[in-house]
Amino acid sequence: MDKKIEKTSWQKYKSVVYPTVFMMLVIVAFAMSTRRGESLKINGQRIQLSTVERGEFQEFIALSGSVVPLKTYYLDAIEGGRVEMRYIEAGTFVEKGDPILSLANTNLLLDIMYREAELFQQSNNLRNTKLAMQQNRLTIQSQLLDLDYQIRQSKRVYQRNEKLAEKKMISNEEYEASLDDYQFLEKKRDLTLLSFGQDSIYREVQIEQLESGLKRMQDNMEIVKQNLDNLVIKAPVSGQLTALNAEIGESKNRGERLGQIDILDGFKVSTPVDEHFITRVDLGQTAIFTLSNQEYTITLTKIYPEVLNGQFRIELEFTEVEPAEIRRGQTLHLRLELGNSNQALLLRRGGFYQETGGQWVYVMAEDNRSAVKRNIKLGRQNQDYYEVLEGLEPGDRVITSNYGQFGDYELLTFAEEV
Questions:
Q1: What is the CATH number of domain 38-57+342-414?
Q2: Number of helices and strands (H, E) in the chain?
Q3: How far apart are CA 95 and CA 58, in angstroms?
Q4: What is the pTM of this model?
Q5: DSSP string, 94-135
Q6: Interval 69-86: pLDDT, tens
Q7: Do 253 and 265 meet the contact criterion of CB atoms below 8 Å apart?
Q8: Of 30, 174, 215, 386, whose CB has the highest number of CB atoms within 10 Å?
Protein backbone atom coordinates (compact mmCIF):
# COMPACT_ATOMS: atom_id res chain seq x y z
CA MET A 1 0.00 0.00 0.00
CA ASP A 2 1.42 3.34 -1.04
CA LYS A 3 2.05 6.01 1.62
CA LYS A 4 1.16 9.65 0.92
CA ILE A 5 4.17 12.01 1.26
CA GLU A 6 3.35 15.36 2.84
CA LYS A 7 5.08 18.50 1.47
CA THR A 8 7.19 20.65 3.86
CA SER A 9 6.50 24.38 4.37
CA TRP A 10 9.53 25.39 2.25
CA GLN A 11 8.42 23.11 -0.59
CA LYS A 12 4.99 24.72 -0.48
CA TYR A 13 6.31 28.32 -0.84
CA LYS A 14 9.48 28.01 -2.94
CA SER A 15 7.49 27.93 -6.12
CA VAL A 16 6.22 31.40 -5.19
CA VAL A 17 9.42 32.90 -3.59
CA TYR A 18 11.83 32.14 -6.47
CA PRO A 19 9.83 33.94 -9.16
CA THR A 20 9.19 36.89 -6.84
CA VAL A 21 12.88 37.38 -5.98
CA PHE A 22 13.83 37.05 -9.65
CA MET A 23 11.32 39.74 -10.68
CA MET A 24 12.58 42.10 -7.94
CA LEU A 25 16.20 41.72 -9.13
CA VAL A 26 15.14 42.42 -12.69
CA ILE A 27 13.24 45.55 -11.59
CA VAL A 28 16.23 46.87 -9.54
CA ALA A 29 18.67 46.25 -12.37
CA PHE A 30 16.36 47.95 -14.83
CA ALA A 31 15.91 50.90 -12.50
CA MET A 32 19.66 51.31 -12.00
CA SER A 33 20.38 51.10 -15.72
CA THR A 34 17.58 53.51 -16.44
CA ARG A 35 18.82 55.94 -13.75
CA ARG A 36 22.40 55.74 -14.99
CA GLY A 37 21.31 56.80 -18.38
CA GLU A 38 19.17 59.63 -17.06
CA SER A 39 20.36 63.20 -16.83
CA LEU A 40 20.25 65.61 -13.91
CA LYS A 41 18.93 69.07 -14.49
CA ILE A 42 20.76 71.71 -12.46
CA ASN A 43 21.09 75.48 -12.17
CA GLY A 44 23.98 76.59 -14.36
CA GLN A 45 24.48 79.77 -12.33
CA ARG A 46 25.71 77.79 -9.32
CA ILE A 47 28.63 76.02 -10.96
CA GLN A 48 32.17 77.11 -11.61
CA LEU A 49 33.81 76.48 -14.97
CA SER A 50 37.49 76.42 -15.90
CA THR A 51 39.03 76.15 -19.34
CA VAL A 52 41.81 73.65 -19.97
CA GLU A 53 44.82 75.46 -21.37
CA ARG A 54 48.45 74.79 -22.19
CA GLY A 55 51.00 76.79 -20.23
CA GLU A 56 54.03 76.81 -17.96
CA PHE A 57 53.61 74.43 -15.02
CA GLN A 58 55.73 75.03 -11.93
CA GLU A 59 55.31 72.61 -9.07
CA PHE A 60 55.65 74.30 -5.69
CA ILE A 61 54.57 73.90 -2.08
CA ALA A 62 53.05 76.58 0.11
CA LEU A 63 54.92 77.30 3.35
CA SER A 64 54.64 79.70 6.27
CA GLY A 65 58.06 80.92 7.41
CA SER A 66 59.24 83.12 10.25
CA VAL A 67 61.79 85.89 9.83
CA VAL A 68 64.82 85.35 12.08
CA PRO A 69 68.19 87.16 12.30
CA LEU A 70 70.92 85.99 9.97
CA LYS A 71 73.21 85.31 12.96
CA THR A 72 72.28 84.45 16.52
CA TYR A 73 74.64 83.94 19.47
CA TYR A 74 73.36 81.91 22.40
CA LEU A 75 74.31 82.59 26.01
CA ASP A 76 74.92 79.36 27.95
CA ALA A 77 76.06 78.91 31.53
CA ILE A 78 79.67 77.67 31.38
CA GLU A 79 79.50 77.16 35.14
CA GLY A 80 76.33 76.59 37.11
CA GLY A 81 75.25 78.76 40.00
CA ARG A 82 72.59 80.96 41.54
CA VAL A 83 71.59 84.13 39.71
CA GLU A 84 72.92 86.97 41.81
CA MET A 85 72.53 90.05 39.59
CA ARG A 86 70.86 91.12 36.31
CA TYR A 87 72.62 94.10 34.81
CA ILE A 88 70.37 94.63 31.77
CA GLU A 89 66.97 93.47 30.52
CA ALA A 90 65.87 91.63 27.37
CA GLY A 91 65.45 93.87 24.33
CA THR A 92 68.48 96.02 25.17
CA PHE A 93 71.23 96.64 22.61
CA VAL A 94 74.58 95.56 24.04
CA GLU A 95 78.23 96.01 23.10
CA LYS A 96 80.78 93.21 23.12
CA GLY A 97 82.04 92.63 26.67
CA ASP A 98 79.08 94.24 28.44
CA PRO A 99 78.09 92.30 31.62
CA ILE A 100 74.60 90.83 31.39
CA LEU A 101 74.19 88.87 34.63
CA SER A 102 76.32 87.26 37.34
CA LEU A 103 76.09 83.90 39.11
CA ALA A 104 77.27 82.83 42.55
CA ASN A 105 78.87 79.39 43.07
CA THR A 106 80.12 78.53 46.58
CA ASN A 107 81.42 75.11 45.54
CA LEU A 108 83.61 76.72 42.90
CA LEU A 109 85.11 79.09 45.48
CA LEU A 110 85.87 76.18 47.83
CA ASP A 111 87.46 74.27 44.95
CA ILE A 112 89.72 77.24 44.20
CA MET A 113 90.78 77.44 47.86
CA TYR A 114 91.57 73.69 47.90
CA ARG A 115 93.59 73.95 44.69
CA GLU A 116 95.51 76.95 46.01
CA ALA A 117 96.45 74.94 49.11
CA GLU A 118 97.65 72.05 46.91
CA LEU A 119 99.62 74.48 44.79
CA PHE A 120 101.28 75.97 47.87
CA GLN A 121 102.16 72.49 49.16
CA GLN A 122 103.64 71.46 45.80
CA SER A 123 105.68 74.64 45.68
CA ASN A 124 107.03 73.90 49.18
CA ASN A 125 107.94 70.35 48.14
CA LEU A 126 109.86 71.69 45.18
CA ARG A 127 111.67 74.22 47.33
CA ASN A 128 112.56 71.61 49.95
CA THR A 129 113.82 69.21 47.29
CA LYS A 130 116.04 71.85 45.76
CA LEU A 131 117.33 72.77 49.22
CA ALA A 132 118.06 69.12 50.06
CA MET A 133 119.86 68.69 46.77
CA GLN A 134 122.02 71.73 47.46
CA GLN A 135 122.81 70.53 50.98
CA ASN A 136 123.70 67.08 49.67
CA ARG A 137 126.00 68.63 47.08
CA LEU A 138 127.80 70.62 49.78
CA THR A 139 128.10 67.51 51.96
CA ILE A 140 129.57 65.48 49.13
CA GLN A 141 131.98 68.25 48.27
CA SER A 142 133.10 68.38 51.91
CA GLN A 143 133.60 64.62 51.92
CA LEU A 144 135.64 64.78 48.71
CA LEU A 145 137.76 67.54 50.19
CA ASP A 146 138.54 65.38 53.24
CA LEU A 147 139.26 62.35 51.07
CA ASP A 148 141.59 64.30 48.83
CA TYR A 149 143.49 65.48 51.92
CA GLN A 150 143.69 61.96 53.31
CA ILE A 151 144.72 60.56 49.91
CA ARG A 152 147.58 63.04 49.62
CA GLN A 153 148.84 62.16 53.09
CA SER A 154 148.43 58.44 52.49
CA LYS A 155 150.21 58.74 49.13
CA ARG A 156 153.22 60.43 50.74
CA VAL A 157 153.40 57.73 53.40
CA TYR A 158 153.08 55.00 50.77
CA GLN A 159 155.79 56.53 48.55
CA ARG A 160 158.17 57.01 51.50
CA ASN A 161 157.60 53.47 52.75
CA GLU A 162 158.18 52.14 49.24
CA LYS A 163 161.70 53.63 49.19
CA LEU A 164 162.41 52.46 52.71
CA ALA A 165 161.22 48.95 51.83
CA GLU A 166 163.58 48.84 48.88
CA LYS A 167 166.48 49.60 51.29
CA LYS A 168 165.17 47.03 53.78
CA MET A 169 164.76 49.77 56.36
CA ILE A 170 161.11 48.85 57.18
CA SER A 171 159.25 45.59 57.22
CA ASN A 172 157.11 44.41 54.33
CA GLU A 173 154.08 44.40 56.62
CA GLU A 174 154.40 48.15 57.29
CA TYR A 175 154.87 48.83 53.59
CA GLU A 176 151.82 46.79 52.57
CA ALA A 177 149.70 48.51 55.25
CA SER A 178 150.52 51.95 53.80
CA LEU A 179 149.71 50.66 50.29
CA ASP A 180 146.36 49.25 51.39
CA ASP A 181 145.48 52.49 53.12
CA TYR A 182 146.27 54.52 50.01
CA GLN A 183 144.25 52.22 47.68
CA PHE A 184 141.32 52.17 50.08
CA LEU A 185 141.12 55.97 50.09
CA GLU A 186 141.29 56.09 46.25
CA LYS A 187 138.44 53.61 45.87
CA LYS A 188 136.42 55.39 48.52
CA ARG A 189 136.77 58.62 46.59
CA ASP A 190 135.62 56.93 43.35
CA LEU A 191 132.61 55.45 45.15
CA THR A 192 131.75 58.83 46.66
CA LEU A 193 131.87 60.45 43.21
CA LEU A 194 129.61 57.70 41.76
CA SER A 195 127.14 58.08 44.61
CA PHE A 196 127.13 61.84 44.14
CA GLY A 197 126.44 61.51 40.40
CA GLN A 198 123.57 59.08 40.85
CA ASP A 199 122.06 61.16 43.62
CA SER A 200 122.30 64.26 41.40
CA ILE A 201 120.49 62.48 38.55
CA TYR A 202 117.73 61.31 40.91
CA ARG A 203 117.35 64.78 42.40
CA GLU A 204 117.21 66.39 38.96
CA VAL A 205 114.48 63.97 37.82
CA GLN A 206 112.59 64.59 41.03
CA ILE A 207 112.85 68.35 40.61
CA GLU A 208 111.73 68.08 36.97
CA GLN A 209 108.66 66.06 37.98
CA LEU A 210 107.85 68.49 40.77
CA GLU A 211 108.20 71.45 38.42
CA SER A 212 106.03 69.72 35.80
CA GLY A 213 103.36 68.93 38.39
CA LEU A 214 103.55 72.49 39.69
CA LYS A 215 103.10 73.82 36.13
CA ARG A 216 100.02 71.63 35.60
CA MET A 217 98.55 72.76 38.88
CA GLN A 218 99.17 76.40 37.93
CA ASP A 219 97.48 75.85 34.54
CA ASN A 220 94.54 74.15 36.24
CA MET A 221 94.34 77.03 38.65
CA GLU A 222 94.16 79.46 35.73
CA ILE A 223 91.31 77.45 34.20
CA VAL A 224 89.45 77.36 37.51
CA LYS A 225 89.92 81.11 37.90
CA GLN A 226 88.61 81.57 34.35
CA ASN A 227 85.55 79.56 35.38
CA LEU A 228 85.20 81.96 38.27
CA ASP A 229 85.32 84.83 35.78
CA ASN A 230 82.73 82.98 33.66
CA LEU A 231 80.23 83.37 36.48
CA VAL A 232 79.81 86.88 35.06
CA ILE A 233 77.98 86.38 31.76
CA LYS A 234 79.20 88.94 29.21
CA ALA A 235 78.06 89.77 25.69
CA PRO A 236 80.23 87.83 23.16
CA VAL A 237 79.22 90.22 20.34
CA SER A 238 77.45 93.50 19.82
CA GLY A 239 73.74 93.17 19.06
CA GLN A 240 70.29 93.00 20.59
CA LEU A 241 69.65 90.89 23.67
CA THR A 242 66.38 89.34 22.49
CA ALA A 243 66.00 86.79 25.30
CA LEU A 244 67.17 86.51 28.90
CA ASN A 245 65.87 83.52 30.86
CA ALA A 246 67.25 84.15 34.34
CA GLU A 247 65.63 85.54 37.47
CA ILE A 248 67.47 86.65 40.60
CA GLY A 249 67.74 83.74 43.04
CA GLU A 250 67.15 81.12 40.35
CA SER A 251 69.61 78.22 40.12
CA LYS A 252 71.14 77.48 36.72
CA ASN A 253 72.95 74.28 35.74
CA ARG A 254 76.13 74.12 33.68
CA GLY A 255 75.31 74.32 29.96
CA GLU A 256 71.80 75.70 30.51
CA ARG A 257 70.57 78.27 27.98
CA LEU A 258 70.36 81.74 29.54
CA GLY A 259 69.50 83.92 26.56
CA GLN A 260 70.50 84.97 23.06
CA ILE A 261 71.90 87.94 21.18
CA ASP A 262 70.76 88.64 17.61
CA ILE A 263 72.89 90.37 15.00
CA LEU A 264 70.46 92.59 13.14
CA ASP A 265 72.67 93.14 10.08
CA GLY A 266 70.47 90.79 8.03
CA PHE A 267 67.59 88.33 8.16
CA LYS A 268 66.71 84.86 6.93
CA VAL A 269 63.51 82.81 6.85
CA SER A 270 63.07 79.59 8.82
CA THR A 271 60.15 77.29 8.05
CA PRO A 272 59.03 73.69 8.67
CA VAL A 273 58.34 71.38 5.70
CA ASP A 274 56.29 68.18 5.62
CA GLU A 275 58.53 65.09 5.61
CA HIS A 276 56.78 63.96 2.40
CA PHE A 277 58.96 66.45 0.48
CA ILE A 278 62.30 65.62 2.15
CA THR A 279 63.66 63.93 -1.00
CA ARG A 280 62.49 66.74 -3.27
CA VAL A 281 63.89 69.72 -1.38
CA ASP A 282 67.45 70.68 -2.23
CA LEU A 283 69.89 73.53 -1.70
CA GLY A 284 69.65 76.36 -4.23
CA GLN A 285 65.90 76.06 -4.78
CA THR A 286 64.04 79.37 -4.70
CA ALA A 287 60.88 80.52 -2.98
CA ILE A 288 58.68 83.52 -3.73
CA PHE A 289 56.66 85.68 -1.35
CA THR A 290 54.73 88.91 -1.64
CA LEU A 291 55.12 91.81 0.75
CA SER A 292 53.50 95.24 0.33
CA ASN A 293 52.27 94.24 -3.16
CA GLN A 294 55.83 93.46 -4.28
CA GLU A 295 57.22 90.02 -5.07
CA TYR A 296 60.56 88.90 -3.58
CA THR A 297 62.75 85.83 -4.16
CA ILE A 298 64.76 83.97 -1.50
CA THR A 299 67.09 80.96 -1.86
CA LEU A 300 67.23 77.76 0.19
CA THR A 301 70.64 77.67 1.92
CA LYS A 302 70.33 75.12 4.73
CA ILE A 303 68.39 71.88 5.31
CA TYR A 304 68.10 70.28 8.75
CA PRO A 305 67.53 66.56 8.02
CA GLU A 306 66.20 65.70 11.48
CA VAL A 307 62.46 64.92 11.31
CA LEU A 308 60.33 65.88 14.32
CA ASN A 309 56.56 65.41 14.44
CA GLY A 310 56.49 64.63 10.72
CA GLN A 311 58.36 67.80 9.70
CA PHE A 312 61.91 68.92 8.98
CA ARG A 313 63.21 72.51 8.94
CA ILE A 314 64.85 74.59 6.21
CA GLU A 315 66.39 78.07 6.09
CA LEU A 316 66.27 80.50 3.18
CA GLU A 317 68.24 83.71 2.65
CA PHE A 318 67.61 86.79 0.55
CA THR A 319 69.40 86.82 -2.78
CA GLU A 320 68.45 90.42 -3.45
CA VAL A 321 67.96 93.50 -1.28
CA GLU A 322 65.89 92.75 1.80
CA PRO A 323 62.51 94.50 2.09
CA ALA A 324 62.85 97.62 4.20
CA GLU A 325 59.70 96.81 6.19
CA ILE A 326 60.75 93.30 7.20
CA ARG A 327 60.95 92.64 10.94
CA ARG A 328 62.14 89.83 13.20
CA GLY A 329 59.36 87.33 13.99
CA GLN A 330 57.29 88.35 10.97
CA THR A 331 55.41 85.55 9.18
CA LEU A 332 55.85 85.21 5.40
CA HIS A 333 53.77 83.01 3.10
CA LEU A 334 56.17 81.31 0.69
CA ARG A 335 55.89 79.28 -2.49
CA LEU A 336 58.88 76.94 -2.67
CA GLU A 337 59.51 75.83 -6.24
CA LEU A 338 60.26 72.13 -6.75
CA GLY A 339 62.18 71.53 -9.97
CA ASN A 340 62.11 73.46 -13.26
CA SER A 341 58.94 74.67 -15.00
CA ASN A 342 57.74 72.99 -18.20
CA GLN A 343 54.85 73.13 -20.72
CA ALA A 344 51.78 71.13 -19.69
CA LEU A 345 47.97 70.98 -19.96
CA LEU A 346 46.61 72.87 -16.97
CA LEU A 347 43.29 72.51 -15.13
CA ARG A 348 42.51 74.92 -12.34
CA ARG A 349 42.08 73.42 -8.88
CA GLY A 350 38.58 73.08 -7.46
CA GLY A 351 36.22 71.23 -5.16
CA PHE A 352 35.54 68.46 -7.70
CA TYR A 353 38.73 66.67 -6.64
CA GLN A 354 37.25 65.80 -3.25
CA GLU A 355 34.47 63.75 -4.87
CA THR A 356 36.27 62.23 -7.84
CA GLY A 357 39.89 61.96 -6.70
CA GLY A 358 40.85 63.41 -10.08
CA GLN A 359 39.63 60.29 -11.96
CA TRP A 360 36.74 61.93 -13.82
CA VAL A 361 35.11 65.33 -14.45
CA TYR A 362 32.09 66.87 -16.15
CA VAL A 363 33.04 68.49 -19.47
CA MET A 364 30.76 71.05 -21.11
CA ALA A 365 29.23 69.99 -24.44
CA GLU A 366 29.44 72.19 -27.53
CA ASP A 367 25.86 73.43 -27.06
CA ASN A 368 26.81 74.86 -23.63
CA ARG A 369 23.54 73.42 -22.29
CA SER A 370 24.89 70.14 -20.91
CA ALA A 371 27.99 68.54 -19.38
CA VAL A 372 29.14 64.97 -19.94
CA LYS A 373 31.02 62.77 -17.48
CA ARG A 374 34.54 61.95 -18.77
CA ASN A 375 37.37 59.87 -17.33
CA ILE A 376 40.69 61.72 -16.99
CA LYS A 377 44.15 61.28 -15.49
CA LEU A 378 45.89 64.00 -13.49
CA GLY A 379 49.59 64.26 -12.59
CA ARG A 380 51.42 66.83 -10.52
CA GLN A 381 49.72 69.72 -8.78
CA ASN A 382 50.51 73.04 -7.22
CA GLN A 383 48.49 75.61 -5.34
CA ASP A 384 46.64 76.77 -8.47
CA TYR A 385 46.60 73.98 -11.08
CA TYR A 386 46.52 70.26 -11.78
CA GLU A 387 48.67 68.81 -14.56
CA VAL A 388 46.41 66.96 -17.06
CA LEU A 389 47.93 63.75 -18.46
CA GLU A 390 44.96 62.15 -20.25
CA GLY A 391 41.29 62.76 -21.11
CA LEU A 392 41.20 66.50 -21.80
CA GLU A 393 42.23 68.81 -24.61
CA PRO A 394 43.08 72.53 -24.71
CA GLY A 395 39.87 74.57 -24.78
CA ASP A 396 37.72 72.03 -22.91
CA ARG A 397 35.48 73.69 -20.34
CA VAL A 398 35.35 71.69 -17.11
CA ILE A 399 33.09 72.05 -14.08
CA THR A 400 35.59 72.46 -11.22
CA SER A 401 33.16 73.28 -8.38
CA ASN A 402 32.04 70.68 -5.85
CA TYR A 403 30.24 67.59 -7.21
CA GLY A 404 28.49 66.62 -4.00
CA GLN A 405 25.00 67.42 -5.35
CA PHE A 406 25.44 65.69 -8.71
CA GLY A 407 25.36 62.06 -7.59
CA ASP A 408 26.50 59.57 -10.24
CA TYR A 409 24.70 60.93 -13.31
CA GLU A 410 26.40 60.59 -16.68
CA LEU A 411 24.88 63.82 -18.01
CA LEU A 412 24.09 67.21 -16.51
CA THR A 413 21.69 69.56 -18.26
CA PHE A 414 21.03 73.25 -17.76
CA ALA A 415 17.88 75.25 -18.20
CA GLU A 416 19.74 77.83 -20.30
CA GLU A 417 23.06 78.19 -22.03
CA VAL A 418 26.05 78.49 -19.63
A1: 2.40.420.20
A2: 4, 22
A3: 47
A4: 0.50
A5: E-TT-EEEEEE-HHHHHHHHHHHHHHHHHHHHHHHHHHHHHH
A6: 888 889 998 888 889 899
A7: no
A8: 386
